[in-house]
Amino acid sequence: MQRIIFLGTGAALPSISQDNSSLLIESNGTYLMIDCSGSPYRKLLQVGADPALLHHILITHHHIDHIAGLPSLVESLWIKGRTAPLHIYALPDSMRVIEVLLDLWDLRQRPIKEFPIVLHTIKGEQDELVIDVPEFTLRTTQTVHAVPSVASKIIFPLGQVLVYSSDTAPCQSFLDFARGADYLMMECTFCDEETELAGITFHLTSASFSEIASQTQANHTLLIHHSEQMSCSHADLTKEITQKHAYNGKFSIPKDLDVLVID
Ligand SMILES: [Zn+2]
Ligand SMILES: [Zn+2]
To answer: How far is the CA of 249 from the centre of ligand 1 (A)?
Structure first.
């Protein structure tokens, strides 16, 4: 079974109903977490995911809304008695932050029952192969954001392709990477009236979201990384995308803890 579990769908400002964006990809009994926000261990339990089956974590970039939950997750796994290795993947700049965060609380140097934390540095190449295991393949491409960040592509064993932008400004590298996706998941931090702010902070708006969605023509396009608290409502955003910008493909905005079965 392959599923996408939305651990969080908001942008940098959480609310009662939205945590910072983080995904759990399940494929044939193993989990890949993409970014690590809020209280991740608790959220794994909330969605019925066995934390022991979490083997891989991709940190797309080191903005606080994408990385702050990582030390807490590692601590929780250790208290729970984990023995299996945990693999963490990130670009060089983010990896330096990860090492600082882990070492701040001596999370890699335990007095007893240490479990291996294996750090894998991503080079940042276009369509780079990062993980190749029987359950899935992960490829990444560096995008354009305020700090170095990667988009990710998960290829499931039956050939379905999921592409996720994480945080990015509109850029050719992402457009090229996203072509051929069955499921296209993109951030849309801002609506059209916040275009100037989107430019300064290197994010998508409903206009750039719609443009990429139209050019990619995925079977299902999903929108995350949008906090209703700090921007327009999801209803207004939907109106901009589907009416003003006339995007007419299958489109949805998942809520926190929603599950999408990949078929
Ligand atoms: Zn973000
Ligand atoms: Zn960011």
So the answer is: 25
